[in-house]
Specification:
Blueprint (H helix, E strand, L loop, with lengths): L2 H8 L3 H10 L6 E4 L2 E3 L2 H15 L5 H12 L5 H11 L10 H17 L8 H15 L9 H19 L5 H35 L2 H5 L2 H13 L11
Antiparallel strand pairs: 1-2
Helix pairs in contact: 1-3, 4-5, 5-9, 6-7, 8-9
């Protein structure tokens, strides 16, 4: 297909496709003349992946470029490529070095030992978690850290479900793309589900029985309050 058809099928404007080509995010098409190129299903698939990582995952184009480079490197064993892809899409903690960060890193390392998780205590995911722990303490909510194992309990079955999905894929490209999508978009999906659960839980816990009964004027009021729990966007506090 030509670039116009690729644009129509992928939903990505032609100027944006040309920009991705210049930046190396998208492989060049097969030249059919000095000014024309042919593009295949692989180009359409890559465009959809880029847009998903950008629009839903919130990654920068630079980060997307690093992820795609890891995906396309044929020299690395699949296991190492999967780990590299997951690391590159996990945001770093961004905390300055100091006693608080070192204490948080040790807490994360202890969590990994306690749960026998086979993960690098200084990897990007662990560093991100350490940064979160520091931020919680700075905000005066260090008690939230007591919930760490509860969150870990919830994360384990989700991680297993992710890998069950990955194992359905056979081709190396499918494996790596699945991990990238699962890490970025799966995290976005889990976060959205958590916010929805917050809305439901806060409504059931804090609204009055009269609102729950849905009688008369209270029915309309209860519905409006239900949609507005936690703010104008419907998110519960802390979601």
């Amino acid at each position: 297909m030509r670039i116009g058809e690729l644009s129509r099928r992928s939903g990505v404007p032609v100027p944006t496709i040309k920009y991705y080509l210049r930046e190396g995010l998208l492989a060049a098409g097969e030249l059919t003349s000095p000014n024309q190129a042919h593009y295949g299903p692989g180009h359409e698939r890559r465009l959809r992946l880029i847009r998903a990582l950008l629009d839903v995952g919130g990654l920068s184009l630079a980060a997307i470029g690093e992820v795609l480079q890891a995906m396309d490197d044929p020299r690395q064993p699949v296991h190492k490529v999967l780990g590299a892809a997951a690391d590159r899409v996990t945001p770093a903690g961004g905390e300055e070095a100091g006693p608080e960060l070192e204490d948080a890193r040790e807490e994360v390392a202890e969590l990994l030992r306690r749960r026998d998780w086979q993960a690098d205590a200084r990897g990007s995911a662990a560093e991100s978690l350490a940064g979160v722990l520091c931020a919680l303490r700075r905000a005066g909510h260090g008690g939230y850290i007591d919930l760490l194992d509860l969150y870990a309990d919830a994360a384990e079955p989700v991680a297993r479900a992710d890998l069950d999905y990955v194992q359905r894929r056979v081709a190396r490209e499918d494996l790596v793309e699945t991990v990238v999508v699962g890490t970025v978009l799966g995290e976005a999906m889990f976060g959205a589900l958590r916010r929805l659960a917050h809305i439901d839980a806060s409504y059931r816990r804090f609204e009055s029985p009269e609102d729950l009964s849905g009688q008369g004027q209270g029915q309309g009021q209860g519905q409006g309050e239900r949609e507005g729990v936690g703010g104008a966007d419907g998110d519960a506090p802390g979601a």
